[in-house]
Write a structure and sequence with these properties.
Number of domains: 1
Helix content: 55-70%
Strand content: under 5%
Number of helices: 8
Order of helices and strands: HHHHHHHH
Distance between the termini: 14 Å
Oligomer: single chain
Length: 199
């Protein structure tokens, strides 16, 4: 339960940073729709925040759980940087999760091992999970927004088609890829905390 609450709030921080970055780059869409806030009620959605974590937990036998908040609305045409604006906005969410993981990882390093540092380890783990998973370059994940910004415009069209009509297929593909790159997540955790998983 604690892990679920942590990953939900971490996903909210993730989406907030998308909204904040888009606003800074000239797109006030999320701000006007009340999404430039850390209030959970503005970001929670039935599928990504409640149903998806439950289904993943059941289907994986308790080995995998991830949650998402309601995607922040972004108008690419309103961004000041037309070419790389979406890539910057896309990178802001995972970067926020990495910074949260880094901060709590440093706190763990200076504290003696205890049940408290084990709880902090859960925060680090949840944010590394969101950081790594969202950087997978499969629509609608943020990694695809970063990747497609460096590809010819026609590829961005394909990304939108996949995101609109192949959401579940994309999540399945991303999940399979994630199984292969999990060692990267554990390596980052060890790098930040200085030890293996604390829980």
């Amino acid at each position: 339960m604690f892990f679920l609450l942590i990953i939900i709030f971490s996903a909210i921080i993730h989406e907030y940073m998308h909204a904040w970055t888009a606003d800074r780059l000239g797109d006030p869409t999320a701000k006007l729709m009340g999404r430039l806030t850390l209030n959970p009620l503005a970001h929670i959605e039935l599928f990504g925040t409640i149903l998806m974590p439950f289904l993943l937990y059941v289907l994986s036998g308790g080995r995998f759980l991830i949650a998402s908040a309601k995607p922040v609305p972004i108008d690419p045409n309103a961004l000041n940087n037309k070419k790389y604006g979406m890539a910057i906005v896309g990178a802001a969410g995972p970067l926020a999760n990495f910074i949260v993981a880094l901060i709590f990882g440093l706190i763990i390093r200076v504290l003696p091992p205890s049940s408290f540092t084990a709880f902090l380890g859960i925060i680090v783990y949840a944010n590394i999970l969101l950081f790594v998973f969202n950087l997978i370059p499969v629509p609608p994940l943020d990694g695809s927004r970063i990747l497609f910004a460096f590809l010819p415009p026609r590829f961005q069209y394909y990304s939108l088609v996949i995101e609109r009509y192949g959401f579940m297929i994309s999540l399945i593909v991303a999940f399979l890829i994630f199984q292969l790159i999990q060692p990267v997540m554990f390596w980052i955790y060890h790098l930040l905390v200085g030890q293996s998983l604390l829980f």
